Structure formats: C-alpha cells, structure tokens
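## retry 2 of 3
previous attempt timed out at serialization; input unchanged, resubmitting
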Amino acid sequence: MDKPMDKRIVILCVGNLLLCDEGLGPQVAAELTASYEFPANVEVLDRGVMGMAVLADIKAADDLLIIDAVDRSGQPPGTVLRFQPEDLASYQTFKGAHDVRLADVLAAAALVGISPQCECLGVQVVEINPAEYRIGLTPAVQAALPLLLSEIELYLSARGVIWTRKSGESTVNPNQFNSLTFR
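## retry succeeded, writing output
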C-alpha cells in the first residue's frame, strides 16, 4: 500500500476568469498558492478553460481533486458541493463545437486507461454565462470560499497530507458563507 507521501495529489482548478462565477477554479488556485504551503507530492494547478491538454495532469495524479463552478445543481447559489466525476455531465453545459467539458476530458482519460482516484468540489453559481465579460465572483460565491477551502483541507487531511498556512491574511473572510455540502 502506498504511503500518503508516495501518492501524487493534484488539485485541478478549472474555469474562465472572464465569466464571473465561472472563474471559481482559478480564484481557488490563486488562494491556495498564496495562502498554503503543501508538501512536494501535492500540486495545485490552474488550468483555466483546460481542454484535452489536461490529460497529462490527470495521468500524473494518483488522487485528483477537481475544483469547478457548478450550475443547475438545484441548490441555492453559494452552496458548496462535493460530487463524483460521473455527476459532472449533469452540471455542465455544452456551449459549442470548440467547448470541451471536463466530463468529456475525464471520459477520454478513462478510454486510454487513465483513472486516478477522483473527487470534485464546486460551488453553485449565481451567474455562469454573463452577457458581458466580467472578472470577479458574485458575493454569494465569494462568500462560499472559506467553506470550500475547508473542504479542500478535509480532502487533504483524509489522505495524510500535512500543510501549513503561509503568514499573512487570507484573501477570503472565514466568517462569510452560506453553503452546505452534500454527497
């Protein structure tokens, strides 16, 4: 059996910063890299709007945690959600011929035998596709970040990962959130 430090853990953060709440993943990646020190076997990746190029990242992982905005979950905006990769398709919208959904990337990975242990965390968005490009999360999604970060900490702790907080203030306010976790 692998020891926790032998396993490579990848936190794959995806999303488009120009589309309001869709930028959740990159915002979380920025917060994680600014506020935490992780051991060498943990890698935080901001892969933006990704595409099939993330197959190499997925292949390199023993454990994969995907962070992404969620839409159409049936939960109120700002709700933190924990779900499995097979649930992704129901939360994502296909927008066009050049749009690659994360569910499609994971299906392609499975076809070529790439299948790390995978979980997903996300937040139900207020607005995933604004009429105009807009950088920044809505207040409801911004307020969910402390709980989302706590869920990431729990995920890592369950895998034996010990991390430290960097000195200085977090960019999120831990007293503001209106969220819940469901499985």
